[in-house]
Every structure is written in C-alpha cells, then in structure tokens.
Design goal:
36% helix; alpha/beta; globular; D-Maltodextrin-Binding Protein, domain 2; 13 helices; 348 residues; eight-stranded mixed sheet; two-stranded parallel ribbon
Length: 348
C-alpha cells in the first residue's frame, strides 16, 4: 500500500472516529507542543485500539500498561511531574498519523518504524530509537513449515496501513512465491483471522509476534516465529515536524531511561544514588544545574522519570521480560556494553 493512499484512508477513518478523539488544531511553532501540554495539564498519547500485549494492555481497572505506555508516561512525568498526566487515545493503525497531524495527540508511541516516506513525505519527526526488531512471519507448528521460503501459495494476514504489509509482500515476491495478502485495520482482527484459519500465516513485528505466541502457548497447535527477519527496524516515537524543541525534549527523555540503566540507577535505589558523587549521576539527578534549561524543564525531570517509571531495563523487564508473562529476551535492544545497540547520547 502506498503511503499517500494509506494516509488518505487514515484521514477518512479518523473522521469516523472523531467523537472518540479530542479535536483541535495542531499547535505550531517552536515550543508550541510543550506549551500546549503544560496548559492542558496532560500529554495526549496515542494507543492502539484493541491493545497490543506487552506494549499497550488494559488491566481490569481500565488502566493502560505496557512498554510503549511507559514511554508515554516517562514523557508526561518529565514535563508535568507525574506519570498519571499521560492520557491515552485509542486509534487504529491508519488513524495514528492523521491524529498526530491534527493535534488530537501530541505524540505517537506505537512501536512505529522510522521510514523514509513517513519522515519526508508525510512530514513527521522520529526520535532516538527506543527499540529494535524486524518484520517476521508466524505460523502454526502443525503446518510443518520451517522457513519463509516454504510459504508458496500462502494467504498472509497483515495489519493494514503499516510497513509490515509492504515488507511481507516484497519479501515473498523476491522469492518468486505466490501469495495472497489479507489486510485488517485492527491487529486483533488479523490475529483472530489467523487463529481461525482464514490465513496460513501472519506477518508482524517480531517482538509482538513473540508475545502473541507466548499468550497462545496452550493452543492445540502451538505457534512459531519463522527465522527470517525481513528488516531490522529502528522503532521510535513520532512527533510533528516544525517543533524541533519538542523532538529534542522527547529524545532526551528516552536517553535518560537508557543512561539511568547504564549508570545503575533504578526506581528502588534512586534516593541513595542521588547522593552519589559521580558527576554523571549528579547531573542526571539534577544535582548539578542545567539539565532542564535547554529543553524547558526543571533540572530534576530525569530524577522524577526514573523514580516514578523506572529506567529502561525496569520498563522492559516488567512489561516484556523476566517479570512479565512473555519472558522475551532483549536481543539488539540490550545496552551497547552488553552486546546490543542501545546507547544514550552524552549528557553534557
């Protein structure tokens, strides 16, 4: 699906959903987004309609939790001092970008891949990547398929309006395989169709497929993610172009989560670490002046984020890793010193 067509469809769908989404013109100009958030008293963050296990899930009290929701809460805490100041707006995949353009949300944190078309044609800014993973295929083990090159003649369920649809089609075509794409606006509809046998395989972002497979571990025919990784995608938060100050702010919030992990600062030990004499720690904790001045925040914003939300490792482990039902490993999303590619720019 070409991106301009996807955007047009998303705009139409967004109009149908207007009663569920707060409307208003997008703030424009440098610093306008931050000022709008401060005046509103809340960060408007997109969430995935129907949820995405491990990334955006609703608990029994109607509260969103998950990896991406904690990134939103980190930004809200940096700006407004509390993770409860993040409002979540449920949107389908095609709706997220029109909602950002219109000003109905301030930021999109929906494990969204950084692509050329989205950056240059649709006019969005992408932050420092906060997660890495690639598009893959999942299939029932009973199909006796070991690699994606055996998917000749397959019907493939995919979420519409995403890079997944194009990447999966391009890969299968490059292998001279015949296939039928079956796109769905909502991820849960694509997964239900796959479970129900309407398609032979489902394409998606590898980490979300792994979470989905873990949730379906007790199925009569368990599932497996095929080994081919079609692309290694940097996943970023998305903001509007034209307000680089807000982009810079979000970049440094993500960087602070990573830096805190590298320095060993957690929500549990932060009060003790606040007294550490290491200049890197003192600077991140706001003990040395200047951390907030350049981005329009108080000097203790990073301290507040780690205290209330945790560092990067804490966010990962409770939502996706060892403390979650999914037990995912971090892979490339480990710190650079642990063999991954995750690192923070210099706090100086």
């Amino acid at each position: 699906m070409k991106f301009n067509i996807a955007l047009f469809c998303g705009l139409a769908l967004f109009g149908l959903a207007s009663q569920a989404v707060a409307q208003g013109a997008a703030p424009t100009g440098q610093g306008a987004t931050l000022e709008a958030i401060k005046q509103r008293g809340a960060l408007q963050c997109s969430t995935i309609a129907g949820g995405s296990p491990g990334f955006f899930e609703l608990d029994d009290k109607g509260r969103w939790h998950g990896f991406d929701s904690d990134i939103c809460r980190s930004v809200a805490t940096a700006i407004l001092g509390s993770p409860d100041k993040a409002n979540f707006v449920p949107l389908s995949w095609p709706q997220r970008f029109p909602a950002l353009q219109s000003g109905s949300v301030d930021i999109v944190v929906n494990h969204t891949s950084w692509t050329l078309q989205r950056n240059s044609v649709l006019g969005f800014q992408f932050t420092l990547p906060y997660f890495f993973g690639g598009t893959q295929f999942m299939i029932k083990k009973s199909a006796n398929v070991a690699t994606a090159t055996q998917l000749n003649g397959a019907t493939v369920c995919v979420p519409a309006g995403t890079t997944t649809e194009r990447l999966a089609a391009d890969y299968l075509a490059s292998k001279n395989l015949t296939f039928t794409m079956l796109p769905f606006e909502k991820t849960e509809d694509a997964r239900a169709a796959y479970i129900g046998g309407r398609c032979d395989t489902i394409a998606g972002w590898g980490p979300t497929l792994a979470v989905f497979g873990a949730r379906r571990a007790n199925d009569a025919s368990p599932h497996m993610v095929l080994p081919e990784v079609l692309t290694n995608e940097p996943v970023s938060a998305v903001v509007r172009q034209g307000d680089e100050k807000f982009l810079i702010l979000v970049n440094w919030v993500i960087a602070a989560l990573i830096e805190a992990e590298e320095l060993g600062i957690t929500s549990a030990n932060i009060e003790k670490m606040k007294e550490d004499k290491d200049p890197r720690i003192a600077r991140l904790m706001g003990k040395l002046p200047g951390l907030g001045k350049g981005i329009g925040l108080r000097d203790t914003w990073a301290y507040d984020v780690v205290k209330h939300v945790g560092n990067y490792s804490e966010i990962f482990e409770r939502n996706l890793g060892s403390q979650s039902p999914y037990k995912l490993t971090r892979g490339l999303t480990k710190l650079w010193k642990d063999g991954g590619v995750l690192y923070a720019p210099v706090f100086d």
